[in-house]
């Protein structure tokens, strides 16, 4: 429920920006269908399955572990915001490898950075991300999970933000405070311009910098303005149904 409320508050705030309103108004019908289906799956169906199935599954196989681990509030937050982010970095990087990119390629058909497109995916591809399994498992283990839930809520909001064009002007103090360590919309836009390149982290730039996958754009359009360049979408020869369910069609990606 908190995630849904956060989404709609952030969505309403994004509409204050003319560019976001223009992007949403010009979005093709098929893109709306892809993005809406992804939002329903990632924002409602998967959390429901986590509550009804995954946690109940843990209670069947490891009942003695439920609420068995005590961790202070700050430690929970660091676990959710930092450690899980590192796991996500490697999972996301793996999805850009030759073996798994077909599963992830639909996400890179995004042609404009608006927050609704954050969930554009083949519907079951979210199962390859660590959030689905780790978050429910860690919440199952913790005696008090409020710090961890705060961390994953922050990650969720950052995911919406970095898929939007709500960029921070480089001359603002907030940009100077965040740019050295946090993945900003400009950084994730670069990821969408180079689908096999870098900027795989969700929250922190340190993982990309540590492993040599950090992308930094020094072009005047990005450095001197609050608006970033638009992503470079992959063109797929796939029907809407194939993009949603089965992206393995032969010759699915155009050259």
What does the overall shape look like? globular
* Radius of gyration computed on alpha carbons: 18 Å
| Count of discrete domains | 1
Uncertain segments: 221-228
Distance between the termini: 42 Å
Strand content: under 5%
Subcellular location: Membrane
InterPro entries: Fatty_acid_hydroxylase, Sterol_Desaturase_Related
Keywords: Membrane, Transmembrane, Transmembrane helix
Pfam families: FA_hydroxylase
Task: Considering the chains and any ligands shown, give keywords for the structure.
single chain, 255 residues
Describe this protein's structure.
With 255 residues, this protein is mostly helical. It has one domain (2-245). Helices cover 55% and strands 0% of the residues. The protein contains twelve helices and no strands. Helix 3 packs parallel to helix 6 and helix 4 (73-95) packs antiparallel against helix 6. The model is unreliable at 221-228 (pLDDT under 50).
């Amino acid at each position: 429920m908190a995630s849904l409320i956060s989404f709609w508050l952030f969505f309403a705030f994004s509409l204050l920006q003319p560019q976001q309103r223009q992007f949403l108004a010009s979005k093709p019908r098929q893109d709306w269908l892809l993005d809406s289906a992804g939002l329903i799956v990632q924002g409602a169906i998967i959390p429901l399955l986590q509550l009804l199935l995954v946690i109940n599954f843990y209670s069947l196989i490891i009942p003695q572990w439920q609420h068995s681990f005590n961790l202070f509030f700050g430690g929970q937050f660091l676990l959710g915001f930092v450690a899980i982010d590192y796991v996500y970095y490697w999972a996301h990087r793996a999805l850009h490898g030759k073996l798994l990119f077909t599963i992830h390629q639909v996400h890179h058909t995004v042609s404009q950075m608006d927050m609704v497109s954050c969930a554009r995916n083949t519907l079951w591809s979210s199962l390859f991300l660590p959030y689905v399994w780790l978050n429910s498992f860690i919440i199952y283990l913790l005696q008090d999970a409020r710090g961890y839930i705060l961390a994953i809520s922050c990650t969720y909001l950052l995911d919406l933000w970095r898929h939007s064009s709500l960029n921070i002007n480089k001359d603002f103090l907030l940009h100077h405070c965040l740019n050295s360590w946090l993945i900003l919309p400009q950084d994730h836009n670069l990821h969408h311009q180079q689908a096999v390149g870098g900027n795989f982290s969700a929250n922190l730039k340190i993982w990309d910098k540590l492993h040599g996958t950090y992308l930094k754009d020094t072009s005047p359009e990005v450095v001197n303005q609050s608006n970033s360049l638009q992503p470079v979408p992959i063109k797929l020869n796939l029907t809407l149904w194939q993009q949603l369910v089965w992206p393995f069609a032969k010759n699915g990606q155009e050259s």
